[in-house]
Predict the 3D structure of the following.
Amino acid sequence: MTGRRAFLRGALAAGATGAAGLAAGSAAGSAAKGAAHTGAPAARGRAFHGEHQAGVLEAPARRTIVASFDVIADGRAELTELLRALTERARILTSGGPPEEAGIAAPPADSGVLGPDAPGAGLMVTVGAGASLFDDRFGLAARKPPGLLRMRTFPHDALEAGWCHGDLSVQLSADDEDTVVHALRDITRHSRGAAQLRWRISGFSSPPRPGGTPRNLMGFKDGTANPDASDAREMDRLVWLSERDLCGGTTPHAPADRPCGAAGGTYAAIRLIRMLVEFWDRVGLPEQEQMLGRARDTGAPLDGVHETDEPRYAEDPVGEVIPLTSHIRRANPRTPGSAGSRILRRAFNYDRGMDGAGDLDMGLIFTAYQRDLRRQFEAVQDRLADEPLTDYVRPFGGGYFLVFPGVRDASDFLGRGLIT
């Protein structure tokens, strides 16, 4: 216990040295403040403080690492220290600047991966909590937000226990691989003794080719039908949690055992999906397009011309043009009943080399943000059951997480409203 506490205290002390760089980071980020509301890539030096965490509304950066941690802290006090340490490291990493100088006999204060004056480089750090964090270890059971679930197994899943769930999720996104690797090493170093990596995976977002939405490793555009992330009212309707969602519309002065402190956060459904690309590559293009419901070259629905054209399902009730079993028609049938189940989809490709049989191990790191996991992500997933595409994909991991609200100021920290 003494060692863990000393380690966390050391992390917090080291973090304090970054305070001098906060003003510069915030000033540089003020110009990028609107990036969270445009769906555009975050500008370099994005402001750390705000109502919401970065990495949700912003368009995916070029590189990401998604990691899940098991918390091994002893009691709520150590958990609080851990979250303070994570917050301070995220604040420093996103602001950039030279690390504190270590003593002659001490190990270096930084890995040096980004050089002696580490840039913020547009890094976004997004932290969440799994349902398992709200158990008897920390006395948080009564504070678990009512919509935070444990990810269930869906038909055709091939979930592997070691790649599922976790107490905390951390997503690191930036345009450079060394930026996210540097951030992961820093966070694991400063959380050691209080949190242990459970699983991690690296991903990338392809540039639009030739334009529009980026493509996944099946060759199709991925995320065309997303809601508009620049529409604040739409994001409040579909993505951001309100006090009403969490505690029945009570005021901020609700009893301490209520989960109102998560207002301004969101629920993330993370799915690690292997694509059987060698099998897929042997399927004829017309059949691929029928399974997806879109043209591969343009991304347009099969009854349209342009990627952003709305499919005209009402004119095709029996699915002669866009099959009733196609992915886009199942996922978003565009009926009055399905309007409330839209999700904000963020996806990265991954490439893990090959498996033991010599087959390519490639696929998708899929993340969906929403206010209600059951009525949004799970409703979509249930509609997709037995779609033809299930023969070519194998979900093997992931989990559901509450993405904490943003950090409001220098005295705030991630998760504060739920654990203090």
Observations:
- Confidence is low (pLDDT under 50) at residues 12-45.
